[in-house]
Design a protein that fits this description.
Length: about 280
């Protein structure tokens, strides 16, 4: 009995020790597995994430605007551009030699609501008013009143208007007056291939194209390389609309000069003897 009990105790001790060994092995195995899991999870978290794909988006560049001679639309002088609301020498329904002071000031008030008008100067007590599309005087229109009647309307252009277009509208000029008598250009074909035709530059001349019987006086910009020529691509820069006159009336005692360009010394010798007849595009002027 005692021997049986001893065997049982020994057997139990072996079982316990064997169980403890198995438990240690199990714990060791679990520990190893835990270490492996931690190592694997660490390796996964340290793995660099794939970079996001780069998407190239093309954006159309904004246009850049350099100096231009046409910053404003033809709305400033639509009559010259399109013949609306009336054809020159009429401007905005005002006709030199016909429209009254009251009609002129009525148009002035109507223009105050036009979006293109930057400023209007002149009161009812004045004999003139100025309509300005820009903060400066560039492109301004002057309406002059004498004896309660519109005497003349003058201004500068802010859009491309060429001598060729002028001839299509009004026909051949009645006369020309060239202040610069230097002859550089012999033919328009030569000038057009060598010049910067639409870029005003130092040395350019403003020459005069007269239609006195139609009530029109235009100034054309002639580049220094084009002196002596009148070419279809040359630009008209200024205008004066006046009451129609014969050439003799216009040039007698500088009558037309005093109307359109008073105080201009450059016209001191303007007369029937100094004006030039139109003989077509090209040189010889």
């Amino acid at each position: 009995m005692i021997a049986s009990i001893g065997w049982n105790v020994v057997s139990l001790d072996r079982i316990v020790r064997r169980g403890e060994g198995e438990m240690r092995q199990k714990h060791c195995f679990q520990g190893i597995m835990l270490v492996l899991v931690l190592l694997l999870s660490t390796a996964c978290t340290r793995r660099p994430e794939p970079a996001c794909p780069t998407i190239e988006v093309w954006v159309e560049p904004s246009p850049t605007f350099g100096p231009t001679i046409t910053p404003y639309p033809t709305v400033v002088e639509p009559g010259l551009a399109y013949g609306i609301p009336c054809r020159p020498p009429c401007w905005r329904t005002l006709t030199p030699g016909q429209s009254t002071r009251a009609e002129a000031f009525q148009v002035r008030e109507q223009l105050r609501t036009d979006e293109w008008v930057n400023y209007i100067s002149g009161t009812d007590a004045n004999d003139a008013f100025i309509v300005g599309p820009t903060p400066s005087s560039r492109g301004s229109i002057f309406v002059i009143i004498e004896q309660d009647v519109v005497s003349h309307i003058q201004g500068s252009l802010l859009f491309d208007y060429t001598v060729g277009e002028m001839l299509e509208q009004f026909g051949p000029p009645e006369d020309l007056y060239l202040f610069s008598r230097a002859t550089v250009c012999s033919a328009c074909e030569v000038w057009e291939t060598t010049s910067q035709r639409f870029e005003p530059a130092l040395g350019d001349a403003l020459e005069d194209i007269l239609y006195p019987e139609q009530g029109l006086w235009f100034k054309v910009r002639v580049p220094s390389s084009g002196r002596g020529c009148i070419c279809p691509d040359m630009r008209i820069e200024h205008f004066c609309y006046h009451a129609p006159l014969s050439l003799e009336e216009a040039l007698t005692d500088h009558q037309l000069v005093d109307v359109c360009w008073p105080g201009r010394g450059r016209y001191a010798d303007l007369s029937l003897e100094t004006v030039l007849e139109w003989h077509g595009f090209g040189g010889g002027y």
